[in-house]
Amino acid sequence: MVTEINIARDFSKTPVGRYRADGPYSGEVFREDFLIPSLNRGDVIVVLDGTDGYPSSFLEEAFGGLLRLNRWTANELLKHLSIRAGSAEYEPYRDRILGYFGKRR
Domain-by-domain residue ranges, the chain? Predict the structure, then answer.
């Protein structure tokens, strides 16, 4: 099963913050309430387009946290998690996320 998560549509157009205490649209909320349940069901495609941007705290907590919490290895994430940036505006965010998994463009 493949799950697509469009962050702007399914989560927030203004993701911000690292921890749940930072608000309802933090990286921790996204990771724990959206990303992990989806990865537990199968492959995941995350679409970055459509937001007002991504603070590094959000990206690191949401995606880097998957490795930091030892839930998956970088190779497992690269196999089962696809990060899509449909426009050039979002490519730097995609590249930053892939960098957390040790993959460089």
Answer: 2-100
Q: Indicate whether this model's pTM tops 0.85.
A: yes
Percentage of the chain modeled with pLDDT above 90: 90
Region 52-74 average pLDDT: 94
Q: Rounded to whole angstroms, how far apart are CA atoms 19 and 17?
A: 6
**Contacts of 27-34 spanning 24+ positions with Cβ under 8 A:** 27/57, 27/58, 27/59, 27/60, 27/61, 27/62, 27/63, 27/65, 28/61, 28/62, 28/65, 30/58, 30/62, 31/61, 31/62, 31/63, 31/65, 31/66, 34/5, 34/10
- On the question of pLDDT at 21 being above 80, the answer is yes
